[in-house]
Amino acid sequence: MTAYEGADRVAEVYFGVVEPPVVAQRDITISAPVSSQQTEEKPLECSGMAWADGRLILASDRHGLALFTCPIDLRHMTIGMPTAHVVIGNEQELLDDAESLTVRVGRRGEPIVYVLCSLSNDPDELPLPKRRHMLRMALRDLDPARVARPVVLSAGKVRDLINEHFEAVGIEAYRTFHAEFSGGDRNTYRWGNVEGMCFMPDGRRVLLGMRNPLLGSHALMAVVEGVDEAFDARDPSRFRLVDLFAIDLGDRGVSDLAWDPLTKGYLIAAGKSAGPKRSKDQAFPPNTLDSALFWWSGHKLDRPILFARFPDMKVEAVCRLGPTRFIAVGSDEGDVSEGRPQQQQSVITILYFTGVDVGHRDR
């Protein structure tokens, strides 16, 4: 491993500990309204992020109408506090459970932002349309943000295409425990969760990573074409699923992924999901965060390579910080429902990472 000196081992990263390969860390939790109809403010819960023009662009799976920008001074390696920006003006187009965010440069040289909701059913098993929304928009400025050409489409077609493959090969849908469910089985039907998205190097295909369900012990990945065609035509039928396969992340699913131009591979954040509650005596949610970072070549026959573990952090997002040797990790550290003693909620950690030794196979 070439990520840091003495890197013949896998790094372990902890909250509050800034030592190599970690160079900076900050709790960036702020609160913002969850919609224009509700004045209640909730904390930012980082679910996806990407780098653009000196700032992280953050999605929060609690905030259906806003994205966040967070400045980082790469020279002094200091992390600023985020600002919320309303990007959805129509309550019918809210992004419920937005889990994936990616950015690429458009033809006019401006950042084009894509946000995808999880495609899952809600905790009460409802197949809400707003959980299948996908947003594309241009950012003219970032301070303050000026949104141009926003379009929200239903990505339900993508879920339907993936589900056809699930049924064909017998992949069971994901269920997890919901104590307040009024039905008989409190392990409610969620279908699955798409939590990672990025454009592949050809700029045409989009790679999606699923947190759940797993295929045995492997995480599921989907390749989709026609994304910009669908947005240009306002026609979701243009989405095409061209591949569905599995990679070994050690019993973990994908919580985010990003193409890394420096190492010519994918950065994958991975973690275990709570799953169903099997007995009344089972602690729930289980205290098995087991978040990790992998590097993957993009070749299906190559196994992803583990390069960092996060024993006490719940990693939800990862990206390269522009042309630097540093990557940023976004984590959700303290959802009250998890009963955890620390309530930082959203934390950004910056690590030095320049690649891996392809012979390193620890998982």
UniProtKB/TrEMBL annotation:
Protein's name in the database: DUF3616 domain-containing protein
